[in-house]
Amino acid sequence: MNFLRRVSPIAGLVIAVAPLSGCNILIPDVAADSPARFVQETSPVFYQPPGVDPRRVRPIPDQPVPQTRELYKTQFHQTYGLPVSNPVHMAMYGELRDEDFTLPAIPISRVQPQFLRQEVDYQTTERPGTVIVDTKAHFLYFVEAGGKAMRYGVGLGREGYAWSGRGVIQWKQKWPRWTPPVEMVSRQPDVRAFSAENGGMNPGLQNPLGARAMYIFKDGQDTLYRIHGTPDWQSIGKATSSGCVRMLNQDVVDLYDRLPAKAEIVVM
């Protein structure tokens, strides 16, 4: 009797467990307890080319991460492999064949970047086609539609500060002759050979007016104010001893081609 009492609980447990024997709940899963088995069962499967034993492929050693880079340093930042010179500027200021003359390339690396030709946002009430000269900032703007303008760097001499206001570009000329004013001839007798009575200086690469000249009139009268090119590219962005509004020769050619007839000009 006592034996049956001891056996019956065990028999009941066996009977209860029998239907669940297919679940193997009595067989422990040791995968979680075995790191090696866990890695084997959960590791991703990668493509293995035929004939390549992945066990014999040597891993690539870790490369040190560079802390600094010395590629093409500029005064502003590191360009990380980008060219220091803007290729667009190099094309704009390269050697240019114009009429019977060849304008030499301008060393743009020696010109301050803000004085190189570029299209900028420019809000103004002036209509497109107007020229605006900002004598304080040494910029000339050719107003375009849509709140844009083509901006050029300029150099200014004494004559460049002598007149301000609104006028009209009454006349423009390619490869002009240079005729120094009487006041300059009296101050510098060495330019007398180019005076008006002697016919002025022939056009050319050394002519102070450069490749183009634009003559400003107001109320039908010549203001003696000029926008012109210059072979002296180093004067751009600076105040010089003489001259009106000087532009790089490649820039003055570009402006000349953009200007409509009788364009308005504002000098401030």
UniProtKB/TrEMBL annotation:
Pfam families attached to this UniProt entry: YkuD
Annotated Gene Ontology cellular component terms: extracellular region
Record carries keyword Chaperone: no
Pathway: Cell wall biogenesis; peptidoglycan biosynthesis
Annotated active site: H228, C244
GO MF term (any one): peptidoglycan L,D-transpeptidase activity
GO terms under biological process: cell wall organization; peptidoglycan-protein cross-linking; regulation of cell shape
Keywords: Cell shape, Cell wall biogenesis/degradation, Glycosyltransferase, Hydrolase, Peptidoglycan synthesis, Transferase
Protein origin, superkingdom: Bacteria
Domain L,D-TPase catalytic: 129-268
Family, per entry: Belongs to the YkuD family.
PANTHER family for the chain: L,D-TRANSPEPTIDASE, L,D-TRANSPEPTIDASE ERFK_SRFK-RELATED
Listed name of the protein: L,D-TPase catalytic domain-containing protein
Source organism of the structure: Rhizobium chutanense
